[in-house]
Amino acid sequence: MFSIFLPRDVNFSELFEKQANYAVDAASYFKELVSKGTLDEASYQKMHDIEHQGDDVAHAIFDHLNKTFITPFDREDIHALAKRLDDVVDMIYTIVNRLKVYKLTSIHKNLIEFASVIEESTRAVAHAVKGLGNMKNAKKIFEYCVEINRLENVGDSMRDAMLADLFETEKDPISVMKWKEIYQDAETVLDICEDVAHVVQSILVKQA
Amino acid sequence: MFSIFLPRDVNFSELFEKQANYAVDAASYFKELVSKGTLDEASYQKMHDIEHQGDDVAHAIFDHLNKTFITPFDREDIHALAKRLDDVVDMIYTIVNRLKVYKLTSIHKNLIEFASVIEESTRAVAHAVKGLGNMKNAKKIFEYCVEINRLENVGDSMRDAMLADLFETEKDPISVMKWKEIYQDAETVLDICEDVAHVVQSILVKQA
Amino acid sequence: MFSIFLPRDVNFSELFEKQANYAVDAASYFKELVSKGTLDEASYQKMHDIEHQGDDVAHAIFDHLNKTFITPFDREDIHALAKRLDDVVDMIYTIVNRLKVYKLTSIHKNLIEFASVIEESTRAVAHAVKGLGNMKNAKKIFEYCVEINRLENVGDSMRDAMLADLFETEKDPISVMKWKEIYQDAETVLDICEDVAHVVQSILVKQA
Questions:
Q1: Are B63 and A176 a contacting pair at CB < 8 A?
Q2: How far is CA A142 from CA A20, A70, A198, B115, B125, in A?
Q3: C-alpha span between B203 and B1 (Å, rounded)
Q4: Do the Cβ atoms of B104 and B177 come closer than 8 Å?
Q5: Are B88 and B129 in contact (CB under 8 A)?
Q6: Exposed, middle or buried by CB within 10 Å (0-12, 13-18, 19+), for A105?
Q7: Is C175 helix (H, G, I), strand (E, B) or coil?
Q8: Residue of C76, C164, C173 with shortest CB distance to A174
Q9: B208 touches chain C (CB under 8 A)
Q10: pLDDT recorded at residue A133
C-alpha cells in the first residue's frame, strides 16, 4: 500500500520530512530567541539560514513535481503541502525580521507564550506529515490534525488577549503599531499550520 | 440537464444553499448589530455561533468532495466556492471580533452604511449560488454577478471616503489605527463576495 | 513545437503579451508619477485607466480558458499566470490610490528608488512571458526569472531600510502608519512579480 510513495526516482516523502523538520527548527529557534529577550545579529542570521534551507527543499519539491508524471497523491495536494510548509518557516522568519527592522530589541514576555504554542503546533505538523507515508498511521494523523486545530484556537484567544492588553497598557502609538503586527503575525503562523493540517486531511480522506 | 447536481448520495446543491444562507445571516446580523451602535457579549456570541455553523457546512462539503468521484462541476470550482463562501462569514466575524478586542463599543455610523452594502451583496451571492442547480437560471445568475461586482466598486469608494474622512477628523492615532483596519476589512468582505461571483461565472461559462 | 500556442480560435500568447505590457505601462507610469513628487487628479485617473484595461484582458483570458478544451499549457498555469499578471497592475494601482486617499501629495524620494526596481522587474516579467511562445527561449526565460528573484531580494532590503529609517526619523504616528503601508505595498509588487516567475518556471519545467 502506498508503495508509490517510496523511493523510485523521487522520494517526496523524504523531502516533506525535511521540510517539516525545518518548520520545527524555525519554531524551536524562535522560542529560544524570544526567551533570551533580546535579538542579536547572530540569532537573526541563524533564522535567516533556516529560512533559506527550507526554501531550497520547497523548490526541490516543486521541480520534482513538475518533472514527475506519477505522484504518490494528487499533484495539487503535493504542491499545496510543500507551499504551506514553506509558508510556516517564512512567517516565523518574517516575525524575526520585523523584530530587527522595528528595533524591538527588548522582547515582550507575551511572545514567549506564543512561541511555545507555535513550537507545539509545528511538532504536531511534523508528526502528521511524516505519518503520511503509511496509511496505517491514519488515525494518529487525524489526531495530530485535531491538535493543530486546537492550537490555532488557542492562538486566536492569545492574540486577542494580547491585543486587548496592548491597547490598554501601551500608550505610545508607534509601539502599539509594531507589536500589533507582531502578535497578528504570530497568530498567522498557527493559521498556516492549520492550512497544512487541512491538506493532510484532504490527502487522507481521498485514500480512505 | 445537470441532474448529477441533484441528490444521489451527496447533495452539493443543498449544502451550498445552506452556506449561502449563513453568509446572509451573518451579514444581516452584522447590520443589526452595528445599527444598535453598541456591541454586547450576547451579540458577539451570536455572531460567533453563525461562524461556527458556517464552518461545519464548509467542512461537510470538503469531506464529501474528497470522497466523491463524480461531481456536478469541476472539483476545484466546488472547493473554491465552498472556501470563498466560508471566507465571507469568517471575514464578517473577524470585524465583530475586532470591535470587541479593540473595545470599540461605540460604533461609527459609517459602518452601518457599509453593513447595508455587505448585506445586499450577500443576498445577491445567495441568489446566484442557489440558481446554480438549473442552467435555465444562467441569465439571472449573470445579472446577480454583475450586481455583486457593482457593489464591490461601491464598497471601494465607501472605504476610500471613510478613510479620507478618518484621517481628516480623527486625531488620536490609536483610534485611526483601529478604524482603518475595520473599514479595510469591511471592504474585504465585498472583495470576497466578488471572488464567489467569479467562481460562479466560471462554472456557468464551462456549462454554456 | 508548441504550435498549439499559436492562433487557432484563441490566441493566449497575444493576450498574455498584452497583459504583460499593461504591467510595464503601470510600472513606468508609477515611476514617472512618483518622480514628479506630487499626485494630481489627471495622473491618478490615468493609472486608474491602465488598471481597467488590464482587467479587461484578464477577464478575456478567463473567459477563453473556460470555453477552450485544449490549452497550450496546463489550465491552472494559464489561470495563475493571468491572475498574477493582473495582480501586479492592481497592486501598483492600489499604491497610487492610497497616495490619493491618504493625501500624500508630497511623495517621499525613497519611493522613486522603489519604483525603479518595480519597473525593472515588470520589464523582466514581460520578457519572460513573451518568450513563452517558443521553447527555444527557455534558457533566456530562466535568466529573466533569476533576475526577477534577485529584484525581489533587492526590494526586501529596500523596504526594511526604508521602514527602519521611517521609524527613526518620522515622529508623527499617523505619517508612520501611512508610509509603512505604502512601503510594504511597494515590496508586495515585487513579491507578485516573483509569483509570476514561479508560474513561468513551472510551465517551462513541464515542457522540458
A1: no
A2: 17, 26, 10, 39, 34
A3: 14
A4: no
A5: no
A6: exposed
A7: helix
A8: C173
A9: yes
A10: 79
Q: Residue A30 corresponds to which cell in the numbers above?
A: 524562535
Residue C42 is placed in which grid cell?
489627471
Question: What is the DSSP secondary-structure string of B25-45?
Answer: HHHHHHHHHHHHS---HHHHH
Determine how many CB atoms are found less than 10 A away from the CB of residue C111: 24
The low-confidence residues of chain C, meaning pLDDT below 70, are 1-10, 208
- How sure is the predictor about B69, in pLDDT bands with cuts at 50, 70 and 90? confident
CA distance C70 to C150: 35
Q: Which residues contact A207 (CB under 8 A, 6 or more apart)?
A: A2, A73, A135, A138
Say if A175 is an interface residue toward chain C (CB within 8 Å): no
**Residue whose entry in the numeric block shows the C-alpha cell 520545527:** A24
Q: Answer whether residue A137 shows pLDDT above 80.
A: yes
Query: ipTM score of the complex?
Result: 0.89
pLDDT tens-digit series, residues B113-138:
999 999 999 999 999 999 997 889 99
Three-state SS for B49-62 is HHHHHHHHHHHHHH
Residue type at A23 in one-letter notation: A
Give the three cell numbers for residue C88: 501586479
Assigned C-alpha cell, C157 = 532590503
CB of B61 closer than 8 Å to CB of B15? yes
Q: What is the pLDDT of residue B11?
A: 85
Q: Chain A: residue nearest C202 by CA?
A: A66
Contact B103 A164 (CB under 8 A): yes
- H-state helical runs in B68-171: 75-101, 110-131, 138-169
Q: Which amino acid, A126?
A: A
pTM of the model: 0.92
Q: How many CB pairs under 8 A join B and C?
A: 30
Task: Bin C108: left if φ > 0, else alpha if -120 < ψ < 50, else beta.
Answer: beta
